[in-house]
């Protein structure tokens, strides 16, 4: 163990001075040295919320609400299991960045050739584009529903929100964390309010968190369950988590400092992912309480918006206000997710192809790569929401392909004592991570096959 620790200390001291991930905010947040638990936790709280938005982005909404509408509360257990897997992988991602001083993209690139680095960058960039598609579509449709802005114009507006991130970076990383936290709070409060009005069955909800054998025997339920689990872990979130965990000041020559950072970063990550779990649960509960048994078509954001103000669908609580609150939450979700998606784009660009250009160029390129296919579809189909939202299904193909290239290196690196020293994964963590990895990849391969078959 001493030899491993010595090698580890030599390694981290050698990398901490150059090639920093998100260099402009790396180590920019001060943390108290000898403060109490709560004060220290407050200093470390923030990165987790940027991670959590990836688990409650607009791409997850339709699936969760449809799950409740079709099968009532029975798929809540799937959301619970998915959230536990996410907590495990994101804790490992944060630990990787804290211990090594490098993000997942940088470490993967170091262990591959230049050509392979470019290939991996393309795959990761496609995954971010796929994630951004849902966020752009969600934000564009929200603008249309709220302000009657034509969808094409709304999409163009979302392309400009990257400029907001440039301003925020000048103000400090804590400001970004605070704004994203505010947007997440809006999402949480809106759906908590709408679920409270829908008067769900508490006993049904509690039973729903207990796994049911019927999930495996009912093909439709199984397919929707696979969609929920398979779309839970976004590849870009693993790259992001390994980077923004380094925004706190840290002395990597001090074992206790590293240990403290891992502890509080893990607590932060788990707390915020618990909020994402609550939001996804609320979405499914809303679908179950309002739409189960109504035979409503809820395949699109506009369908959901209209249904919430239709008394024939949701009963006496129907009102335009419920619909508007839904649109506000959708806009909040899209905007918070685009901030984290753009940061992820910078991380993989610098990590895989080691391209360092002005920040505004990096973020503009990443954003334009994501907006372009959505805009082309919007122009071709003249702003037809149904056609544009069909991109959401196709986008899952890229996520399915990209996932193994992020998750497998994460498990390998965090389990390697030559890289992590004494902070390498314990045996139970390593085996649980590999089990989760195999399950997630298997589900995504299945979904990939089903999606391609459906598109043909």
Question: Mind explaining what this structure looks like?
Answer:
The protein has 22 helices and no strands. Helix 8 (151-160) packs antiparallel against helix 19 (359-380) and helix 13 packs across helix 22 (427-455). The chain has helices spanning 2-15, 37-44, 47-52, 58-71, 76-100, 104-110, 114-147, 151-160, 162-171, 173-198, 202-208, 214-217, 219-230, 235-244, 255-291, 301-307, 311-314, 320-352, 359-380, 385-415, 417-420, 427-455. The longest helix has 37 residues, at 255-291. By secondary structure, the protein is mainly alpha-helical. It is globular, with a radius of gyration of 21 Å. Mean pLDDT is 81; it is low at 1-18.
Overall shape: globular
First CA to last CA: what distance? 55 Å
Helix-residue proportion:
over 70%
Major sheet? none
Using only C-alpha atoms, the radius of gyration works out to: 21 Å
Task: Give me some keywords for this one.
22 helices; mainly alpha; 456 residues; 0% strand; disordered N terminus
Question: What can be said about this structure in brief?
Answer:
This protein has helices spanning 2-15, 37-44, 47-52, 58-71, 76-100, 104-110, 114-147, 151-160, 162-171, 173-198, 202-208, 214-217, 219-230, 235-244, 255-291, 301-307, 311-314, 320-352, 359-380, 385-415, 417-420, 427-455. It is mainly alpha-helical and 456 residues long.
Question: How is the secondary structure organized here?
Answer:
Blueprint lengths: L1 H14 L21 H8 L2 H6 L5 H14 L4 H25 L3 H7 L3 H34 L3 H10 L1 H10 L1 H26 L3 H7 L5 H4 L1 H12 L4 H10 L10 H37 L9 H7 L3 H4 L5 H33 L6 H22 L4 H31 L1 H4 L6 H29 L1
């Amino acid at each position: 163990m001493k030899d491993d620790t010595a090698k580890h200390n030599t390694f981290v001291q050698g990398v901490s001075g150059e090639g920093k991930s998100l260099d402009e905010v790396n180590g920019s947040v001060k943390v108290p040295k000898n403060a109490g638990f709560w004060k220290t936790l407050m200093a470390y709280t923030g990165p987790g919320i940027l991670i959590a938005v990836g688990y409650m982005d607009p791409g997850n909404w339709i699936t969760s609400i449809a799950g409740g509408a079709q099968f009532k509360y029975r798929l809540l257990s799937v959301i619970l299991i998915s959230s536990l897997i996410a907590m495990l992988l994101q804790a490992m991602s944060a630990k990787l960045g804290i211990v090594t001083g490098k993000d997942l993209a940088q470490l993967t690139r170091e262990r591959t050739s230049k050509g392979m680095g470019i290939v991996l960058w393309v795959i990761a960039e496609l995954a971010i584009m796929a994630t951004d598609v849902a966020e752009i579509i969600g934000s564009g449709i929200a603008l249309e529903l709220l302000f009657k802005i034509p969808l094409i114009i709304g999409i163009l507006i979302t392309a400009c929100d990257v400029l907001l991130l440039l301003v925020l970076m000048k103000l400090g990383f804590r400001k970004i964390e605070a704004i994203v936290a505010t947007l997440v709070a809006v999402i949480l409060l809106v759906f908590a309010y709408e679920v409270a009005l829908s008067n769900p069955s508490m006993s049904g909800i509690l039973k729903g968190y207990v796994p049911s054998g019927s999930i495996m025997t009912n093909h439709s339920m199984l397919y929707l369950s696979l969609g929920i689990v398979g779309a839970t872990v976004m590849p870009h979130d693993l790259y992001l988590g390994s980077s923004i965990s380094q925004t706190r000041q840290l002395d990597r020559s001090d074992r206790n400092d590293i240990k403290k950072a891992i502890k509080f970063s893990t607590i932060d990550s788990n707390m915020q992912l618990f909020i994402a779990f609550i939001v996804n649960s609320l979405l499914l509960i809303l679908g179950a309480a309002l739409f189960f048994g109504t035979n409503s078509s809820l395949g699109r954001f506009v369908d959901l918006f209209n249904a919430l103000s239709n008394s024939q669908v949701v009963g006496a609580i129907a009102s335009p206000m419920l619909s508007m609150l839904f649109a506000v939450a959708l806009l909040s979700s899209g905007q918070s997710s685009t901030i984290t998606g753009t940061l992820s784009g910078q991380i993989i660009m610098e990590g895989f192809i080691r391209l360092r250009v002005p920040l505004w160029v990096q973020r503009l390129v990443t954003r334009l790569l994501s907006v372009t296919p959505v805009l082309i579809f919007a122009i071709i189909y003249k702003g037809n929401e149904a056609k544009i939202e069909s991109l959401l299904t196709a986008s899952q193909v890229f996520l399915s392909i990209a996932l193994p290239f992020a998750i497998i290196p994460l498990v390998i690196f965090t389990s390697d004592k030559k890289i992590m020293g004494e902070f390498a994964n314990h045996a139970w963590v390593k085996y649980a991570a590999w089990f989760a990895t195999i399950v997630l990849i298997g589900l995504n391969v299945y979904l990939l096959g089903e999606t391609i078959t459906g598109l043909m």
